Amino acid sequence: MFKGSYEFVDIALLEQLEQRLEEREEKVGKIVFKVCRRCGIRKPILQFTTDKRNTNGRASICKKCKIIEYLKYYYANRENVLLTNKRYRDNHKRDRTKYFQDYQKDHKEHLQKIAAIWYKKNRRRIKKRNLKLKANLK
Ligand SMILES: [Zn+2]
Q1: Which residues, by Cβ under 5 Å, contact ligand 1, an ion?
Q2: pLDDT more than 70, % of the chain
Q3: Which are the contacts of 8, defined by CB distance < 8 A and separation ≥ 6?
């Protein structure tokens, strides 16, 4: 339903990580898993955002549920959210430009990798669009 950066996550790798965490929990006896209060699913603690107000330092609902909650809020208050975001962008233009330039410099390889994956996925659509553009130019 939600497409995002986790499209690039290797599911097998995640399962492996979960397995290792489970083993560690048995060994150390420390909290590595937590049950989400919203969806009721037991998940690795890394899938909960940090929250200092909680005794175990993590939020009570998982990241996925938090995203869903935010999207619900977003669609209920869309105009307000967009206005607030625009106001922030306008007030922080210079900081944002600097941030993005630095980010591009520091994450060159990662960005190239993602762009290559995106291109592979959308190659057909891009070619189709380019053909259409060419036809329109004639
Ligand atoms: Zn959840």
Answers
A1: 36, 38-39, 62, 65
A2: 89
A3: 114, 117
